[in-house]
Every structure is written in structure tokens, then in C-alpha cells.
Amino acid sequence: MATLSKSAKFAMGVQIFLLRRGWMGKMDDFVMIITTTGRKSGKKFTTPIAYQRDGENIIAVNPGNSNWLHNVASSGEAILEIKRQVIPVTGSVVKDDRERQRIFDLYRQNPSTFERLFKVSANAPETDLQQAMAKWQFVRFNPK
Length: 144
What we know:
By secondary structure, the protein is α+β, with helices and mostly antiparallel strands. The protein has one domain: Roll (Pnp Oxidase, Chain A). The protein contains five helices and seven strands; from the N terminus they run αββββαββαααβ. It has a seven-stranded antiparallel beta sheet, sandwiched between helices. The chain is globular, with a radius of gyration of 15 Å. The two termini are 29 Å apart.
């Protein structure tokens, strides 16, 4: 795992501060705070990440190299903060190819967020879309 620079840690801290107060404007609609317990250290770690609602569930994506993803995969537990609401959840990495495609298509319904996250146009050729999807892990969170 890469170590964050002091400026990156500061920027994340500011974003967390703003999110917890509902001061992020439209970003509140797709950025949440996740707190996980370190799988090795046992310490609590908090970071802002993008999310997508999927009925009662909450979906997050990650290119597979973040500590929060590994911590959730290890313990299956996290605490999410969405629009000033604290939500204890269980989480799991989505492995089923059909379900991964369904979630990817769910993100495609919002082209600007989709393009910002996946770095490809929502209308790109199918081969480009499949290559983009293959680079990401999808995590489903269920409220406890």
C-alpha cells in the first residue's frame, strides 16, 4: 500500500470535516465516509470514498489497492457516514460476474460520475467498458 503524503492526508481530513457537516453540496450525493478497523493494527481508519445507492444496499468501487477495501474484505464490517447519518454495515467484495456487470451498469446511469470514476465514457465501445470494469473491485454494504 502506498503511504499518503501529508498534503493528501490533510485534504482527506478537510473533506471528512466538510462531509460530516453536510457542507459538500452535490458531493454529498456520491461521496461518503467509511471507517474500518485495520486488519493488522486493530486501529480505526477513516476515509472519504465514492458510493452508489442500490436499493437498501450501498455500493462502493475501488481499484483494489486501498486499505479500506482490504479491511472490509478481512472483517466484513465497517461504519459508513452518508449525509450525516451513521450506518453500521456488513460488507463483501462482489465476485459474481453478472452482479459486477449489473453494478457497473448502475453507475453508467450517471455519466458524469461514471466517467470521473472509471475514466471512460459511458458510451464507449463495449470492449473499452469491459476493460475499465475489469480494473475495479465492487463492494456491497448491507445495513445491520
